[in-house]
Design brief:
Order of helices and strands: EEHEHEHHHHEHHHHHHHHHHHHH
Distance between the termini: 42 Å
Strand content: 5-15%
Radius of gyration: 25 Å
Helix content: 55-70%
């Protein structure tokens, strides 16, 4: 994704036949809170409407994360001026916030209990849950503004535009609004910490199994599924970059890659490494062809697909963090439960078989964990570098300990710390992809560990 959330070049916009904005150039960096300051009539609201694609620009260009405002509009949430709203409209607080989901629901989808929970959660975030049934005209100015902020939150948008958000509101509402906007920037850090821990945890056993090349093949095999998932969600009228749909497509694609590898090794004379190399190159090449085709015909909002190649925390949504966090916890829990069986299987497969745990089942379990970690890591580190999350922390931990369980915990710690620091650096310097930063940090830790353990004469 572009490091610039908004970019305008020589922008001129007319409003009611009068020039409101003339030859303006500016950029707004991703992951930043930016204010537009000016007197009444300076064109602030006109600029916001131009960003929403509601008013055409007379000259110049304007883009949101590298694409046009109209194409990107589904990923923008807008909090209007209070003066623009009919506060006598027959709607209560819950109804107004639920309107933020109308674009996602479309014409026929049912408003489910999950949607109700999202609305209630957004109201809780802005301290308005107790007012859910109250008519909007019965609220104070600050409370009304918080309701619209809740509507913005429930959209899980990547870009939030607020038109005079602090006009006529009390200090409490102002503090709540600022706190909510800052809280959104912390989501990526939480997801990265949990993913880093689980990837290091699982990666220790992948490293001991000497299956790193398989994880690399799985990562590259996800690209066709990502693009196909994007196309499917686009033509079904869903949000084009819905993370669940994209990750599901990536998972199916990677799983198919595993099946192809197994078929090649079982039915031909080709070796396991040759099968992996073939799947890696063919699937990734096919994915690049699909990605290039999608970009060339301007289907949907394809600008953010590149995030899944190199990783980007800009615009990470609450649903991304929830999915990454829950799946990461489940993977680490699986490692805890099966740690003894995995250890026995990797060290002595025959012992595992004689203990009643078939080798193919344990191999499938480890491959499944590797696949899941690969899929959830796409948003943070990207498909090219996700293999590093499964190998470098484990290699670093191996230099410091001789026990399998202590190695897995230390690997999880290294992965979590590197992911957390990398996301912080990427948020401060949005031009740096989060995946690349995290991998560089892990490599530095590995290099220092090699030097230190060598100087200590360690023989682990």
């Amino acid at each position: 994704m572009s490091a610039d959330a908004i970019s305008a070049t020589e922008l001129s916009v007319d409003y009611d036949g009068v020039t409101a904005i003339q030859d303006v150039d500016f950029t707004v960096r991703a992951e930043k809170l930016t204010a537009i300051v000016g007197p009444n009539g300076a064109g602030k609201s006109t600029l916001i409407k131009a960003l929403l694609g509601l008013i055409p620009n007379r000259n110049g260009t304007i883009s949101c994360f590298g694409t046009s405002p109209k194409q990107y509009r589904k990923n923008i949430s807008y909090v209007p001026q209070r003066a623009q709203i009919d506060w006598e409209f027959p709607a209560n607080v819950f109804d107004v916030v639920a309107m933020g989901l109308y674009g996602e629901l479309g014409l026929l989808r049912r408003f489910s209990s999950a949607h109700k929970d999202r609305v209630q959660s957004a109201l809780t975030d802005v301290d308005m849950a107790d007012f859910a049934a109250r008519q909007i005209s019965q609220l104070s100015g600050g409370q009304q503004q918080r309701v619209f902020l809740a509507r913005s939150i429930v959209q899980d948008a990547e870009l939030i535009l607020l038109d005079e958000p602090f006009g006529g509101i009390d200090s409490k509402s102002e503090a709540v609004i600022v706190d909510i906007l800052r809280r959104q920037k912390q989501l990526a850090l939480v997801g990265a910490l949990l993913f880093g821990f689980s990837s290091g945890h699982v990666g220790a056993f992948v490293y001991l199994r000497k299956a790193s090349l398989l994880s690399d093949s799985l990562a590259h095999a996800t690209l066709p599924g990502l693009v196909i998932g994007f196309l499917v969600s686009t033509f079904l009228g869903m949000e084009e970059k819905n993370s669940l749909v994209l990750l599901l497509g990536a998972g199916v694609s990677a799983l198919f890659g595993v099946v192809v590898i197994q078929w090649i090794t079982a039915r031909t004379k080709l070796g396991f490494d040759t099968a992996i190399a073939a799947v890696l190159s063919v699937f990734f090449g096919f994915g690049i062809v699909l990605l290039t085709g999608v970009q060339s015909v301007s289907v949907g909002q394809q600008a953010g697909l590149e995030d899944y190649i190199l990783g980007s925390v800009s615009g990470m949504l609450l649903q991304d963090v929830v999915v990454i966090g829950l799946v990461s916890i489940m993977c680490s829990a699986a490692v805890v439960v099966y740690r003894r069986l995995l250890t026995a299987f990797i060290f002595d497969p025959v012992l595992s078989e004689m203990a009643g745990y078939a080798q193919h089942r344990m191999s499938f379990l480890l491959s499944l964990l590797t696949l899941v970690i690969t899929i959830i890591g796409l948003k943070i580190v990207g498909l090219i570098l996700v293999v590093a999350m499964l190998t470098i922390p484990a290699a670093t931990a191996r230099l410091w300990t001789t026990g399998v369980w202590s190695m897995s915990l230390l690997s999880a710690l290294f992965g979590s710390v590197a992911a957390g620091i990398g996301v912080i650096i990427s948020a401060l310097l949005p031009s740096l992809p989060s995946g690349a930063v995290i991998v560089v940090l892990m490599f530095i830790a590995l290099g220092l560990s090699i030097v230190v353990t060598h100087l200590r004469g360690s023989n682990v």
